[in-house]
Structure formats: structure tokens, C-alpha cells
Amino acid sequence: MTGTLLKIVGLTKAYPGVVANDDVSFNIQEGEVHALLGENGAGKSTLVKMIYGLVKPDSGDMAFKGTAYEPSEPQEARARGVAMVFQHFSLFDALNVAENVALGMAEPPKTRELAERIRTVSEQYGLPLDPWRLVGDLSAGERQRVEIIRCLLQDPKLLIMDEPTSVLTPQEVEILFATLRKLKSEGTSILYISHKLEEIRALCDEATILRLGKKVGTCTPREVTAAQMAEMMVGSELHRPEREPTTPGDVRLALKDLSVASPSQFGTSLKNITLEVRAGEVLGLAGVAGNGQDELLAALSGEITSAPGMVVLDGTEIGARGPAPRRRMGLLTGPEERLGHAAAPNMSLTENALLTGAEREGLMSNGFLKWGKAKSFAEAIIERFDVRTPGTETVARALSGGNLQKFVIGREVMQRPEVLVVNQPTWGVDAAAAATIRQAILDLAAGGTAVIVISQDLDELMEVSDNFAALNEGRLSEIKPAKGLSMEEIGLMMGGAHGMEVAHA
Amino acid sequence: MIFLEKRPQPSKTLSYITPVLAVLITMVAGGLLFAILGKDPVAAIRIIFWDPLFGEFAFYYRPQLLVKGGPLILIALGLSLGFKAGIWNIGAEGQYIMGAIAGAGVALALYPLEAWWIFPLMILAGALGGWAWAMIPALLKVKFGTNEILVSLMLVYVAENFLSAMAIGAMKNPEGFGFPGSRNLQQYPSAHNTEIIAGSGMHWGVAAAFIAAILAYVLLNRHLLGFQIRLTGEAPRAARFSGVKPARLVLFCMGTAGALAGLAGMFEVAGPAGQITTGFNVGYGFTAIIVAFLGRLHPIGIVLAGLLMALTYIGGEAAQSALQLPAAAIQVFQGMLLFFLLAVDVLTNFRIRITLGETA
């Protein structure tokens, strides 16, 4: 470590109604892996956007290699040697890897030449990737490699990575970490954003912890425990969900050889999925994003229909029925995408309560809506799940992601489902709210509901599940009891490291 | 520097103010247009907006307001349902024509029989005619995924040609000395759409428009179907998740719009127009699109917007004769209204922030 690469002094950025960053200062040394740690909404994203030139700070200064640094746009940041891998990829499905990389360059070389360079870099850093493959056919982990290689071709001094492991299997995480360590050894600094504490302990040299926009501490991750870091992040001790051991009852929901084509071109079709969930059981389904999770949820909610016998609820074949009849029978679902799928962004919370609750909660008679009752239902959800909102007439998009998530999950939980299927139930939710949601799911199971939790958060799944399986390219792995599963086994169930064979082809 | 900043919540107040603001801006810009054409802008605006309501000949113009506003409101109400759900029926003009032909067809077939049930039967036929014409783009969309905008629009031209064929062919008045056009239904008591109160302009079609406005209000605000229509427009994926069947909604919205447009056509041919002629349709079906948006796709808004549009029609004609304004200038003026409405619409979802000096 030879000197300070990036010096940040007193960065402040306020949005209407919220201070995203309040007087944040820290330094990144050359060749250092620096962790930026904090809950959702702590201001991590705003901070890195300022470093990457996407957002202009209200006040504060930055210095890069000792000279003033005020990027007004990402291009300027890249020219100075700052590169960023976003959590959400900006790739075109219908183009191949090399073409995608070329799109991000000011003066791209010939595709053949570029492909050669991609291959060299990918071998050099142990990131197997075939430049000629269509991005639409790649797994999430491979797509991330495209983004990383795109950055590496710029020979960056500082690489920013935003929650890079949320889309990776444990094996893929190992590959990524090996790459990052190699980069570090060559003197590249890495700003690593995450809320996964064990990863940070394994990888990072220094950590800066943000809470509610303010820097609340620094630490050397290797020297503290994950629990200590969590406390700094949350500011208090965490409540762990508890559950009473129950004996599973009768089979409530059964999938028999469920195969459906994905409605979207680059979606993942489901192939021969067979599973059973019993009353009181929580089945956890892991899998890297884009391996059929959305399609499975849609096939269960009734948005995608199948042959009648492929989905059986309490002995009735319901594969061909739509969402409304399934809901009537007690099969409730919570999709991953909150805005636009689980909730209508420009409609009030009362209207969004009506969206799935109209029939089960008796919010209408003969097709005529009872607004008073709908409002009370919305109020009940807000109250029980501690949704922070000015009132029931606020539109859904005005709520923060975590609060809306509490609302849409709460809406299904409050309807006393017979079978509940949720996809990413705590995605983007702060730790305290996540604990509330998990506890609600466990309470439902204790009351005899059969629950399927689809999630990319392995810690969450291990916490709530009785049984565990993983989705990989639309297929379901063997279902195993969750207790006693090792990370190694889970990783293999998720498909191990995707695309490794390509590297050695 | 001027910035547009997205509001966390769409502003309720502004969504009521913007139509008024749009009318005011249209008056200013329209006045400029008239001034460039060498006419006195103040006089022109007065003739268009003031004289028909409160001028010397208001007793003649006021009933015209209802006569012209009625069909606009009726058609716009139907269109607004689809527009709310993102279903774009642009062919109300054709559905209006087919409703008129179907309604008049019943009357002409029964002529000269006099019976109480003829007029109700014509109403039914008018609604069915418009409905059937709208079902063509609706079914094509549901079955084959065709674009309803194109199909419904093209069918307007088919309907216009069909109208001409009827006026000079099957429906031609046998006692009409060879002139094109059908018998005049105003002279056929059982089929005549009379004024409910003589001299008021309030014929059965106007009554139907007001009833439809009330029903549309109840549907949109109190009924699950109306909720589903709004939900589909706001978030189609959430609507699917909620259990809305998109195909059913397309059929309902297109069908209702068609039926109401057909009704408007039938009331027109049996009342103010009196007969099927080649020039029977005067563009109500297209103007109703402006009315629907000017009224914010809200039933009460549409009633007000329909009356306002009728005013620009009547006042526009008066201005043409009084000031020799070209008819095209009046059409531009009406177009401006929609243009400015859409422009100021931005304000309901965004607020303007002006910062001085530095680029924030």
C-alpha cells in the first residue's frame, strides 16, 4: 500500500425529503479492497454514484491520486480510471458478448480483435467467458463476468462493485474473489458494496459503515466478528426469527412434472418440476436469478397456465385456472417485482389492498366495491407490518422499497392463505423489517399454512426452511432437509459454477 | 436553468387546474393566430366563447350546445374506458356511422308503420351496429394480436364508403327525385328522435349522454370492472397478477365504446340530421378523442369538455361567418386545445424548478 488513491471529504447529497449522504469522509488506499457496508437505504448507492459521476454532490470534495476529482459524468470518471460493475446489468440479450463490450467503448476495435482481447483478459483473471456467445443465453454469473471484463479492458485504478455476489452461486463467488484478489495484488483498488458480512470478512481490508446516510464507523473486517459489524450497521441488536418445531401435515400443494414455456424470449422455461409442500412446512427454493424463479411463481399464481394435472391444490387439479380462482381456493402468491407486478405504482394503498384482497377479504359485493372496508384492510396491513406511510391514500410508488415490500407481503399474509408462495420476500428490505416478514412467514407455517419461499438469499432460506431445493436452468434439484446442508452441497444443487467448461474449451 | 422534477405524488389540484389553463393558453395562442390572419383577436375569441352563451342570439345557440355536445359526450365516455385501460379505439367515427345506418335501417324497413316500439328498437339496433363494428378490431386484436389503432381507424374509411353506398343505393329515398339520401326520419313520427323539452335542444341522445356519464362514473369508482380497467391502464402486469383477463377487457371496452358511438349515430340520424346522406358524419368520432382527454378520461370532466368543444364548434362557425375566418383556422384552434392540454399535463406529474446561475 503506497498511498491514498481516493480521498473523500465531507460528501453530502440531499434529495427532497431525505438526506442520502451526510458529511461522509473516508479514504481508499492503493491496492486496497475497501468495503462499503450498510443496510438498504443507508446511502451506499448514492455515494458510489457520486464517485462514478452519475450524481453530483451538494457539497464536499474528492481527490483522486492527490488531484481534485469532480466527475460530471461517468465518461470522465472512466477516463480517470474509475470503473463500476452495477448490480443491474446493462447488457443487450440479442447481442453476443464481444458486441456488448464494444458498445461500451468510445472507439471499439474490430470485433475479432476485441474477442481476442476478451479471451486473453478472461483467461488472465480466471473468468471463463466465450466472446461469441449471445448474452441472452448466459447465466447471471456469466453476465456479471461480461460487465467485469468490460471494466477490466479499461485498465481501471479503482473498481467499484455493487452487491456483486447477489447473483452468484457459492462456487461462482469463489471464482470472483480469486479474480478480485489477483486485481488487488496488481495494485488495483476495489470499492466493494455489500451487506453480506462473511464475504466482507473474507475479502476486504477496510470497511466503512453507513447508517441513514451518515458514516457511523470503520473497522478492519478480519479483526471483528460478523455480529459486531451487524450491530454497527443496524445500530441495535437483531431479533432472530424463532419457530416452534411442528410436524408436517397433509400435502397441500403438489407440482407434478410441471413444464411450461417462458412467456419471454430470454426467459427460462420450467422443465419437469415435481414437488410437494405439506401443511406447516416451509420449502425453500434457492437459485441464481434468472433460473426460472419468475416463471415458477407465475405458474403458481395462475399468470401462466399449464396442463390441469401439473398443479394440484388440496387434491384439485388447478393447472389450467387463472389467478382469481386459485386465490379463492387459498393459493396466494407474492411476486418479486414490487412496482408494476405486486403493486400498481400510481394507485393508492387502499386500491393496492384491493388488488388481491377484493374477494377473500369481502371488499366487494356483487362486483360493487366497498371502499370503506378496503381502506380498513389497508390500515390493518399498515398497522401490523409497521409500514411507514402518511396514510392509505398515498400512492404505492411514493413508499420506499422496503415499506412497499412489507405492504405487499403483509397483504397476502393477512388473507390467511392455505398455501403461500413468495419470491424474494425480503429483497431490498432493512434487517429489522426482514425479520418481521420472516417471522410472519414462520407464524403462518406454524398455523398450518404450506409455504414456498423462493429466494436468492441463502442465509434467509437456511433460517426459515424445513426443506431445501434449488432451481437451475428451469429444473429443480433434489429436495433435501435444510438442516445440516453444507454450503458446498447447496452450491452444487444450484448448479455449481456456471459456464466453467467454456474456459477450457 | 429550468428543471422538471418528478413529484412524489401526482398533484390532485393541478389535474383540475390544467384543463382550465390549457383553455386559457389556447385562447392566447389562438388569438395570436387570428391576429396573424388579420382579424381582431379579441373579437374572435369573444365570438367563439362568449356570444353563443350570453350574446344577442344566445337563445338560438344554447340549444345547439346540447345538440352538438350530446354525441361528443356519449362517444367520448365510451372511448375513455378503453383509453384508461390502454386500449386505443380510434375508429369511433366508423362505429358512429354504422350505428346510424343500423338505426335508420330499422326505421326505413318499417316505414310507414306507426308503433311505439319502433324507436326503442332503433336504439337497440344503433347500439348493436356500433358494437358489431367495434368487435372487428377487438376480435382481431384478441385472436391475432393485431393493432387496434390501425384496424379501427381503417374501418372508419370502410364505414364512410358503406355510408355513401347506402345513401345512393339501398337506403335512397324512393320519393326523393333521384337525389342521394334517405327519407327524412324527422317526418316519420314513430322514428323521430324528438326534443324532450321543445326548443331546449335536449333530445333523447342528450339524455342518454347524461345517463351514460352517471353509469360510467359508478362503473369506474364503485365497480370491480372499473377498477380492473384502471388497474390495467396503470400496471398491466399487476392486473394480470390480480386476475384480470386482458382479452375480456379488450372486448368489453371496445364493445362499450362501439355501442355508445353507435347510439350517438342513431340519435343523430333520427334527430338533428334526419337522414342518411353521404356527408352525414362530421367528425364527432374523432373530436370525441379530444373531448375524452380534455375531460381527463373522467365522466364529469368529459361532460364539461364535451360542452366546451361544442362551444368551439358553434362559436367557430359563427366566427367564420362574422369574421370570414377560414374553417381550417377553427380546426387548428381545436387542435391547439388538445396540444396545450397534453403539454401542461406534464405539470401534474412534474414540478418546474428554476435555479439561477450554476448548473446544479
Describe this structure in words.
The complex is a heterodimer of chains A (505) and B (360). Chain A is built from 17 helices and 23 strands. With 505 residues, chain A is an alpha/beta fold. In chain A, strands 13, 16, 19, 20, 21, 22 and 23 form a 7-stranded mixed beta sheet that branches. A 6-stranded mixed beta sheet of chain A has the order 6-7-8-3-9-10, with helices on both faces. In chain A, α3 crosses α4, α11 (349-357) packs parallel to α13 (401-413) and α13 (401-413) runs parallel beside α14. Chain A starts with a strand and ends with a helix. Chain B folds into 2 domains: 1-39 and 329-360, no CATH class; 59-324, ABC transporter involved in vitamin B12 uptake, BtuC. Chain B has 13 helices and 2 strands. In chain B, strands 1-2 form a two-stranded antiparallel ribbon. In chain B, α3 runs parallel beside α7 (204-222). Chain A binds chain B through residues 16-17, 56, 301-303, 322-324, 327, 333, 335, 337, 339-347, 351, 354-356, 358, 364, 367-369, 394-395, 398, and chain B through 5, 8-10, 222-225, 227, 230-231, 234-235, 237-243, 245, 360. Chain B: This is Beta-methylgalactoside transporter inner membrane component. Chain B: The chain crosses the membrane at residues 16-36, 67-87, 94-111, 117-140, 149-171, 202-220, 249-267, 273-293, 300-316, 328-347. Chain B: It is found in: Cell membrane.
